[in-house]
Amino acid sequence: AAGVIQSPRHLIKEKRETATLKCYPIPRHDTVYWYQQGPGQDPQFLISFYEKMQSDKGSIPDRFSAQQFSDYHSELNMSSLELGDSALYFCASRRAGGRYEQYFGPGTRLTVT
Amino acid sequence: SQQGEEDPQALSIQEGENATMNCSYKTSINNLQWYRQNSGRGLVHLILIRSNEREKHSGRLRVTLDTSKKSSSLLITASRAADTASYFCVPSGGGADGLTFGKGTHLIIQP
Question: Residue A13 in contact with residue A112, Cβ under 8 Å?
Fold first, then answer.
């Protein structure tokens, strides 16, 4: 079965640089979620989109923005990177219509040096 | 979703034994989900139990829900080394909101 695809899987950036993470949801899933998991931390919800509109917002820094495109893929844009942004970034997708389970991708490991 | 509180925080058992972990939450829910995360990997949805259900099975997993006590339990029978992971419970009001994860239960299966 198709799974959530995230790219790149690993990314190394320097402080103050920008990064763009991409997420391709499972086919026919129309809701995308982004999560951040720092070293030794629990996953933290950042933001979500349903039908290309922002549907929920968590602890996403102002330096980050995200959007969902017409093909339902999503991109998380991160600017002015800080050392503390080093983390695993997970994308999850969900199929609407009364289904609540979220299906997670393998994550993008971002290292900021 | 609200944050669930898993107990114990860590559990170590021998391969083949059963593992039980518990979850408590604070406000009424529509459903409660359990997720697993192997070290450094993505989260995997294990099972969802709705508020009008008391017990649900999926393979070696058995989940119970007691809405009067605002608690749930996850039982893994005949544990295997591959079950070593962190397990999170996520109580949900049923909307499409992002999930809130607690500390989880870190399960270690000893060979």
Answer: yes
Cα B100 to the center of its chain, rounded Å: 13
Split at pLDDT 50, 70, 90, the class of A85 is very high
Sign of CA dihedral A86, A90, A91, A94: negative
Contact A12, A19 (CB under 8 A): no
Instruction: Compute the nearest-CA separation of A14 from chain B (Å).
Output: 22
pLDDT digits (tens, 9 = 90+) for B61-93: 999 999 999 999 999 999 999 999 999 999 998
Q: Do B30 and A35 touch (CB under 8 A)?
A: no
For B29, residues 6+ apart whose C-beta sits below 8 A from its C-beta are: B2, B51, B67, B91, B92, B93, B94
DSSP class of residue B81? G
**Do you know the residue count of chain A?**
113
- The mean pLDDT value of chain A amounts to 95
Task: Identify the residue among A100, A108, A110 best suited for mutation to test binding to B, counting B beta carbons within 10 A and taking the highest.
Answer: A100
Please tell me the distance from the alpha carbon of residue A31 to that of residue A74, in angstroms, as a whole number: 10
Are A89 and A103 in contact by the 8 Å Cβ rule? The answer is no
